[in-house]
Amino acid sequence: MNPLSENQNTSKSASTHTRYVVLAALSLGFVLAYLPRAGLAPLASTIKKDLSFDDLQMGRILAVFFAGYFLFQIPGGLLGQKLGNRIALPLLHLLAAFANLLTAVAYSFGLIWISRLILGLAQAGMVPCTAQVIKNWIPESQRGIASSLMGSFMSVGSIIATGLTASLVVPFGWRFPLILFSIFSLCWVILFFLFFRDQPEDHPYTNSEEVNLIGNQNKDKKNDTKQEAQINKSSLTYQMISNRNIWLFCLQLAFRGFGYAFFITWFPSYLQNSSGASVQEAGLLAMLPLIGVVLGTLTGGKLIDLIYSRTGNKYFSRSLVGVFSHLICAICILGAAWAEPFSAVYLISCGTFLSGVGNPSTWVTAMDLGGKHTSVVIAVGNMLGSVGTYVSPIVVANLFTYIKEMNTPNWNLTLYLFAGIYLAATLCWAFINPNQSVSD
């Protein structure tokens, strides 16, 4: 036998790795998406001074993003199903880049308000569309780590946005960073559209071995098209409303969104009030819980894949991971109430690390429950999760007011609240069965 021909046969049988490039492109897309989303908050004081806004106006500008984000979750997911994600994702990023550029050139409250609303509308569809891409491109046994990368790079984008805007605003003004963010997004749009394909078998850089490894559930496209045609919108709506797992899935997202919002809104103020930390100390300490989320999310993805590869049990690898991660998170936050102020921050950060471990469970469970309707399921869940994100700062503001009016302020009430929130998420996860999809 000719050794050369034997080597050629071996190389032909090796799987290509295009799926990893797709993952890298999606991860970069989330980093770029979070630059304008998180980048406006560090610029808020400069914008207020330049355009003569008061605190109330600036608060409305910062909040309106979440209104748009809430409204377009389901339409954004349906857009991916209708147009295909090769078109839908670049289109959404293009609209987001335009909205951010509109913010950069605005000189009035109304124009900035509208631009942030459009940004929320555009970014709402990115998560459900990306979830569908992961389902199509990543083997089931590797979806945990793939989902953890998406969640991690969202927080990475927030961290980069904070540092980059802070370094650029003094020498270049507040408009320049926003323009730069839009340019980055436009470059991503062009490259992603040229490279990406909706199905692995349609990509010029995949081979049959990689397609078989992925185990795409859409191999028989004709049969899938017929099945999807038979399931109309009203039928899908009924299936989702009557599915107990969907309700529990959405509830845990709302609780987790409520909890996460605290760490990106009121946590520095909590540290200043409860421990007497300075503004600078509080800002630095407030980074620790966010770092915990990033590290926990990466850990959770590997853990989910490991458990699933060892047991083949979706409940163990999805739901039980969600149960134990959020339960221990609640215990850590509750324990922080009896710790010294700065030690409490580290306990809370351990809690956010564990909540991050449960993040990939959300993505993977959405794929399990959604089946061919993954983008719609995660859109609904993300929409209700944004309700928790929106409500959290309002509830905490009222709680802070109540605590300050007490004869002896008890700031531990804040920790009790969030320990209870993560405990509620734990109970939701305990009763979610990821084996029952809306397609069944």
TrEMBL record:
**Which molecular-function annotation in GO is an example for this chain?**
transmembrane transporter activity
Task: Spell out the subcellular localization from the entry.
Answer: Cell membrane
- Keyword Magnesium applies: no
Q: Where are the transmembrane segments?
A: 20-40, 61-79, 91-114, 149-170, 176-196, 246-267, 287-308, 320-338, 376-401, 413-432
User: Could you identify this protein by its name?
Assistant: Putative sulfoacetate transporter SauU
Classify the protein's membrane topology as the record does.
Answer: Multi-pass membrane protein
- All residue ranges annotated as the Major facilitator superfamily (MFS) profile domain in the record: 22-437
